[in-house]
Structures are given as C-alpha cells and as structure tokens.
C-alpha cells in the first residue's frame, strides 16, 4: 500500500466510523424519551431527585450501577418494596433493622413527609426506566449474611420440576407441586425471598417462613384473627393475595392498617402458581 493509499484508507475509515457514531447517537437520543419514560417526570420526581442529592444517598447506594456499594442498589427498589414499607422505613430505619443483629447502619435522616413521598416518586420513576438489563445481575435488597435469604442451597439447585436429575423423579404429585412452589418463591415478581428468609429467626423486611404453619395455626385459634380463612392453607393464601386482611399486632410489617406486603401477586401469579407456592410454604412447620 502506498502512502497515498494509506492516507485515503485512514481518512475513509475515520469518516465511516464518525458517520456510524453519529447515526448511533441520533438513534439513542430518538429512543431516550421512551426508554426513560420522560413523560412521567413530574415535579414530585424532580423534587425527589433533589432530595436524593441533598441527603447524599449516593454515598451509600447505587442507581444504574453508579454510586457506592456500601448499601443496597436501589435501581429497582419500588419493585421489591411497597410504598407503605418505604414510607415507614425512611421515617425510622431502626424499627426495621438492628445494627448489632443485622449489621444495618442506615441513619435516621429526619426527612419530611413531602421529601419521603417525592423521593419514593423519584425511585419509582427510576425503577421503570428501561435500563436494558443494567446492572447485569439482580441485586436484592437483603444481605447475603442472612441465612436462607439470597443464597441458593445445593438442594434448591437440584430441584427442577420440569427436568429432574437423572434417575430421580418426584415421589408424588404433591412433591412435584411443592417443588414448583419453591421455584415460584424465588422467581415471582417481586421475589418472595427478597423479603422473606426460610431460616429460623432470620426475620428481614418480612417474617421468616420457618414455622409459618405453627404461627398460622396459633393465629387462627387465637380469637383475634380478622380474616376470612378457616385453615392454614387458606390463611397462607390470604396472606399472599390479600395481605391486609389480617395484620399481626405489634409487628413492624404494617402501618396505618395497611400491610407492607405487595398486593400484586393476585394479578402477577396464576391460581396454579399460588397453589404451588402455598403447598411449598406449608412444608415449613
């Protein structure tokens, strides 16, 4: 290749690369309004962003992978926690987590009610941005130090209702249903294990599922039960589809007569999936 040919090649390559970059940039800007749902940026969302910066939330938390990794990623937090929960949590985090027990160090910021409401509005807008899978892995708000929370046990890895290990088949149809329920427990949206552990004594945003059958039985027999269930299975199902039907007295899982449990499972899960989830939860005696 002569010097003249090399110069022509370099100039042409640079021009083509610049043209491709320009086209991709214009296409990105064309998609930004839809991807970011800019039409949903209200004054409350804008004020919530200001609150986020005012209290330096990014010093501990991350959004879209940007920020500190000292505390949980909050990119999708409103898909894992209900608004009543977030309202109560921001007012007084110490009522949810104990520093010695849970190693949680969230300070009480003394936010006003308006600041809390608008900050949640901002986080909800963030959670609905189409970030195209970034961060590249789901980051749950529970800590891996909690047994039975985010870790997957060897037994759980072995359970695949649609493809059992070689030579292994479910003993009964009931076993198969429970195995599918375990999958729902981890794969529902939001995932049940984002708030609930299966280890005894490991309460998180919600109570541990260990011993749920015994607690349900005691609740039904207590005389204080306010829901419509008549048996343990019905009580667990009611807790999933209508969590405010009965509130546990004194527990920090509700506020102002409303449970912090999401109310979307009746729509996001089929009746069959709820049956499977209930069957799985009834194994925790």
TrEMBL record:
The keyword Iron applies. InterPro entries: Cyt_c-like_dom, Cyt_c-like_dom_sf, Cytochrome_c550/c551-like. Signal peptide: none annotated. Coiled coil: none annotated. PROSITE patterns: CYTC. The keyword Translocase does not apply. Pfam families: Cytochrom_C. Residues 43-127, 176-285 form the Cytochrome c domain. Keywords: Electron transport, Heme, Iron, Metal-binding, Transport. One of its GO terms (molecular function) is heme binding. It comes from the Bacteria. This is Cytochrome c. The lineage of its organism: Bacteria, Pseudomonadati, Pseudomonadota, Gammaproteobacteria, Cellvibrionales.
């Amino acid at each position: 290749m002569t010097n003249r040919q090399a110069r022509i090649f370099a100039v042409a390559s640079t021009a083509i690369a610049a043209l491709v970059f320009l086209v991709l940039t214009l296409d990105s800007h064309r998609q930004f309004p839809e991807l970011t749902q800019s039409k949903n940026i209200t004054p409350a969302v804008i004020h919530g962003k200001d609150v986020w910066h005012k209290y330096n939330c990014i010093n501990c938390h991350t959004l879209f992978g940007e920020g500190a990794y000292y505390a949980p990623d909050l990119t999708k937090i409103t898909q894992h926690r209900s608004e009543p929960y977030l309202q109560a949590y921001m007012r007084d985090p110490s009522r949810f987590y104990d520093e010695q027990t849970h190693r949680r160090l969230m300070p009480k910021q003394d936010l006003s009610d308006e600041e809390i409401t608008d900050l949640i509005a901002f986080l909800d807008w963030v959670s609905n941005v189409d970030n195209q899978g970034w961060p590249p892995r789901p980051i749950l708000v529970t800590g891996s130090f909690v047994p039975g929370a985010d870790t997957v046990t060897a037994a759980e890895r072995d359970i695949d209702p649609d493809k059992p290990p070689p030579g292994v088949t479910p003993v009964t149809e009931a076993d198969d249903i429970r195995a599918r329920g375990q999958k729902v427990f981890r794969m529902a949206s939001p995932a049940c294990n984002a708030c609930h552990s299966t280890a005894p004594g490991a309460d998180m945003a919600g109570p541990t599922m260990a011993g749920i059958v015994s607690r349900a039985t005691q609740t039904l027999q207590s005389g204080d039960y306010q829901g419509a269930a008549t048996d343990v299975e019905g009580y667990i199902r009611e807790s999933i589809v209508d969590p405010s039907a009965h509130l546990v007295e004194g527990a920090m899982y509700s506020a102002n007569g409303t449970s912090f449990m999401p109310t979307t499972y009746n729509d996001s899960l089929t009746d069959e999936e709820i049956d499977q989830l209930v069957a799985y939860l009834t194994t925790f005696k």
